[in-house]
Design a protein that fits this description.
The chain is an alpha+beta fold. The protein has 10 helices and 19 strands. The radius of gyration is 29 Å and the shape is globular. The termini are far apart.
Length: 462
Amino acid sequence: MKNNKGFTLIELLAVLVIIGIIITIIASRGFTAFNNAKKSISEINKKVILDSANIVMEDIKACDDSMDNSTIFSKDLYKDISRDFSNCKDLITSAKVGLNLSIEGMKKQNYLSINDLEDASKYTDEYVNVKGILKENPDTKEYTFNIEYNFNDQVLDKDTLSYKVIYQAMNDGNTKLELAKDKISSLKKNESYLGITEDDMGKSYYYRGNVKDNYVNFNNMCFRIFRIEGDGSIKLVLEDSTSPCNIDTNNNNSHIDSSSSFDGKLTSLNNWFKSNFKDKNILNKIKKDTWCIEDETKKNNEYYTSKEIEADYLIEQFNTSEISLPNMETLNFFFDSYNRNLESSYSEPNLKCSNSFDSQIGTLTADELVLAGGNKLEKASGYLDTNYYWWTLTAYQRYNDIDYIYVYKDGKDKNFFKVGSSNTRYKNNEIYLRPVITILNGVELEKNNADGTKEKPYVIRL
């Protein structure tokens, strides 16, 4: 007798569960294999570079003036050497201190073959630091050496935002990479570049001038990339809170109201942040960053109020001790930011914090705004230009127990004003807040043909 009984519902569900488990295991192993393959390529490249550096140091260790030393004498082989070496003694003396080997130089002098590297265009002096140090045994007078190295992995992954920004600046992007500049001078009309400086974590890249290719979509909002921090994280400045960059709303939504004084602005920023960033997956991409503020122990100079000056003047002129001296504890002073950004003929912005707080939300310092497009008190010329006043994090001076804060505005006015921390208005204009967040290094982008322009912004994968 033929049995026509089929599978029961429970049996079918059991089969589906087993198939799902098998698919999950296969996908997991495939993903692990993919990551291991990427890691293997990176490790192979590192080994190739370090092997080449070892050969260079072996040649330096064996340097003999009676032989042809043109390759190891060449300044091209080293990052920080301005002239060719003329003899082995000078070379070995420098090697004892430490020589920063150039990746490009090792390629040029045939110590390193581009064919030995995977995705060789990424492995340049911007991303790879290799230092050779020669050591002499005091007893045997023989030399050994150590190789110190650092591979900036966060910009070596071509699917990350950090890599896209720097790679485009080095190659076919509109904004080109510039060398580090300690002294910031005025921008030329329509000038823009990706500059290099240092922060507390290392080498930092920042956009300056009339930049057109630093747009980013994140959380259905439009941001502008301000800079890549030393650890590879990316600081983003709000451009439009109501829509992505490539949807033109013609609205000015890059700021939030500051209903409180400067002292309460962090509360206003935190409230905005909590209202707009609720998804755990999105929050996990935002770094709890270190935000620089001025340290009151680092003063540019101290000065008296007019009444105190008058008292000192009378004491000096009429030699009387009946006039009381000012209370030294209440003297007013300029913060160190005054000297960095206003007093000298050029600006020397500093991204290294003397005092700070940690938060997932903040705004820019006066030093950062100088990097973005300002210089002293001259008219702004940068991508962060607005038609409203907004607070910075930087104090300018303390006067009668009130901290005066830099407020930024462009247009017909100069870059910065100093406004008392208890004020919410300046010349009948409201002072607003411009939110800034920092995206963790390693965040990946959607795979599209983005070039960072407003029409084709980078899109952070959620």
